[in-house]
């Protein structure tokens, strides 16, 4: 028994594809004030009366129609169908009276159609009949007027009836749902069916339906993750093994799993200089046993099972790559999902601008990048009858005639008739468009066949290339090979099937076959996408006759310098010189403690002859309480600490103090985060609980945790799979589940709330509306039974093995000190936004773990590196680089620190709400406390967890404020520094100018500056005003507001 | 374009109507009947020969971009659906406009002036999340993970620079969102934010006057001292942010040196009666401020007003939020007409998306990017036109769908900016101002 539930109230109810029927559906929504009206409209318009009756009688069965309505009246058409002696029944029933004017409430009436079946044979006949009348195919049920669209594919459901039904083809044309959303989920039917389906169907149907939902199989995610890590590791290995003209062959091993299989390979030599050359064509290739494999140019094909080697000889170098052939005699049938879909994806058929658009293109829709193979299968083989395929004459199928441009096609010709793509498609058509057994895989009883349909990981080789661009007319480049691995252990060469892209086409354009052509000097990340996987490889392009004397990398140098310099060496970039002591003092003081060095500190440091004075300075600065305040403020911004209608000032204040105290006591960051995430108790007595008060929404809390502590933005996946990353909706809701049991209640003090763990409560998936068990992002489903889920999460997050936490925190520290993150923005870490220096990115994370999450040690490492101490002055080779730390980045001082600097040099203290006079802006606990200066200079309003909330981009308001505003002029006047120096201490104007410079710019004025400034003083009577003007000019100077 | 065909005779004789002979009228009409006028043809030929970027003439001198954050319901504003069921049409009733069309009853003042402006009822894009929708409507581009696109204001300031020493791009009251920034363009093209709401009694744009105790003379001395201090640093550093700060200092000097420019920021200089006409509301005063700035020389004003993300209680919220905007916009159109500025000022009222066809269980409507309405007035836009249509429930565009790129291209064209001009993004990467985008010619006068 199959039941279709029709949302009565919604706009687009249609059972049959005819326009009339669709209109009728609208009528139901629009005019059907009463049920009878609706039912009779529907029955009339759908032609149930005529067609069904006629068709049934023509095969000798008469249907029995039972109509149950609350109003009792029976539409004529239904009556006509009524014949109690027959076994077919069409029943129209309503579960609820129809509301008359309650527009805002969700009401629904079930228009149920029962097909009361004895055997599948009956269904078969029925299908044939209905097919004849052309009613059922393409039927569609759904609603698109609300946000919670359901999309259910009946083909899947019905496909499970096994062969007799499959051959029927028509019933599988039924479909419920709406196309109006971008992410289709096949979810609704289980619910529907659960209550109605007979034991016969239930298991299969349910298994089918859950299939796409579990698309983001955690195991799969894990695999791809491992894949990435291993690529990174290889990269490190490759770098480590840099020696003279080293020949490498990729892939490192070859597996051939069937007669259809083949594998291409590339050879690359890495020269002394680090430059790589693609020598695939020059290498002398041979195989160990030519009886079992055949070699054709740069591809091997299987002949018989066995093991042998691929041998590459180049000069004196010889590299052997193991080949393993299994099942070499079997030739599996072309699979839709495994073979045909990749062709469609590769040819761009299912991109957003073509048929992958949510409404398709020119009447034909495919799922975006093929996320829905079953739906695509249906649309290609079933939609609009069999218009798109011609099984009698496969080569006449519209599907392939369009793609080779034999008939007019808006998308043009996509491949040649003699291409392998065409051959694959044609073979599939010739085989009679077999469907995949993919649908059973969700039930958990995945057999070997279905498991191997979807790739579990992807690899792209070589992992890195350093290409020299040649002159005009000569092309230099590198061939890349993409290999997909499947759950059953097989691999497949997908170079011809993956889509390649480059994030910097002007330097390294990659063509559709994976060949990178060197362009302008620069760096690019080329990516291959296959299925849901994306994998990237770094490509550096260097000019050919570049003179470059690589500076020696000191093996004893700071690990940061080794990694940074190695990257610079690859880019043929010379690092800038080290900055002067004055510059270093100012830079380190601003970065570490958010203040300017005092005059005393300046003289002491500059006059210190010791070699290790920079290191000592760093240690001294790290010991100051201002260091912890800077970081407390940074995290207060990310945690959005501010008083709101829900969170009292006292709570916010206590929360900020808690945070500051953690940093001041140098509590390791993992410990702090664990305490924060697992906090329970009153918002006064346990201030960390305010984390759950400032953001009370479970989903947002989870998003914030992912963004702040892992640098991952999951927001997209709330409504659809992340378009640029691997996160699916299942990942999103699974992660949010960790926060679903947070309870809140009032405390004695009306301003205080108590946060506790309820041990109950779930997060429901937007589409399935079912609870999703807690799942780590890209990880396992832990057992949380009887535990505080937050504890489980915190343990995972702060575990040294966590792949995100330490790296993300280390990257934030790096970005603060260096001006830009290795992954930038720091909270948008994803495959398509790769780190500029992956080894350094990983190493910093590792070091942070080694330091037991004490990031003072990490800051010490960074500040002691040569990379940090470089001058801002660029040289010819690094002038245009901002991501590789060849020179220091000029940054405007952040709003709070800038105000603190102005206040300290003018000795004019600020007063902020809740803090004593003379407190610094960095210490402001409550995010709502601000002033014009802070707002204009881009202080974080703390409204979201995004790092971008705090801005340092210059603006006209800032210029005007420094020129005319009270922050400079008034502070100079009220601080009376000049008056004191001139009147009380009787200092000479020259000394005063020196002291202003030292205070504000941490350097003495040059002779030229001094002469000019003194000259401007001479013709003025009011010496105080004149010197104030100099002070004003210094505070308005670029040199002052920028950290350099 | 049609108008330019008979602009020559009108230049000789200021009396526009008389100068046209019956024959001349016929000639112009005959050509424009084909949708092409002679200059149009010539221009096309010219374009075919070489890609030239400065061939179009600006109709609009400035733009007032009124952005309604949150997503204004098309049904409860310019695209009511009175014939759909109650749960689609909502509780508010339609009213007839002067042109015989129907608007929602929330905009009675605008309905009376429907011949002065045009409505696009078939605006569409697919981004149902606020940030992404906002990105579309501020840049004309879909958000990209790789490139940060500049906002309309940044492009206009890049293309034209300041006029009358006023910042070319001003945001009222603040920079509305992260996409209103400069994207890949240098940050010196960023908007100037008033930093205060003109509706407030204590409204003042700060720091436009020299600090107390500093006269012109002393300010000049300060400037020269600043030059001395800056000299070596500026010589050494060419970073974007340092350059932007330099530019802003130059702009600030220019602004401070121009009393008329400074005065534009002082809303108290406006006649009290006119202020009342705009309405002493956030919408009214911000619109009035926009007009003042545009009149003084600002090229693009981005003004935001209200919170339109009405997931709940749509009727009540609409009744609370819309009237002052209706009054303000009506007053703005009247005021611009009275001053003869309407023809050269493009008023563009947009929102990041529309709202669902069907009212939800909280009596609100949710995000709906598939079809929504945009209002355009002046600056080379015809009056009284409804461009495109949505279907019976305002769920899909029924005819003439307009994409954000189309709208952006049209806006740039009216401003005289060729929208397929390529700007240079970092890494010598040329990027078109608008990628594609068809001009909405039926709206262009």
From TrEMBL, chain A:
Name under which the protein is recorded = BIG2 domain-containing protein
Q: Which residues form the DUF1549 domain?
A: 560-742
Recorded superkingdom: Bacteria
InterPro entries recorded: DUF1549 (IPR011444), DUF1553 (IPR022655)
Instruction: Identify the Gene3D superfamilies for this entry.
Output: 2.60.40.1080
Q: Name one Pfam family in it.
A: PSCyt2
Q: What is the lineage of its organism?
A: Bacteria, Pseudomonadati, Planctomycetota, Planctomycetia, Pirellulales
Query: Which residues belong to any copy of the DUF1553 domain?
Result: 789-1014
UniProtKB/TrEMBL annotation, chain B:
Q: InterPro entries from the xrefs?
A: Alkaline_phosphatase_core_sf, DUF1501, TAT_signal
Q: Which Pfam families match?
A: DUF1501 (PF07394)
Q: Matching PANTHER family, A to Z?
A: BLL7424 PROTEIN, DUF1501 DOMAIN-CONTAINING PROTEIN
Q: What is this protein called?
A: Sulfatase
Name the species this protein comes from. Rubripirellula obstinata
What does the organism's lineage look like at the top? Bacteria, Pseudomonadati, Planctomycetota, Planctomycetia, Pirellulales
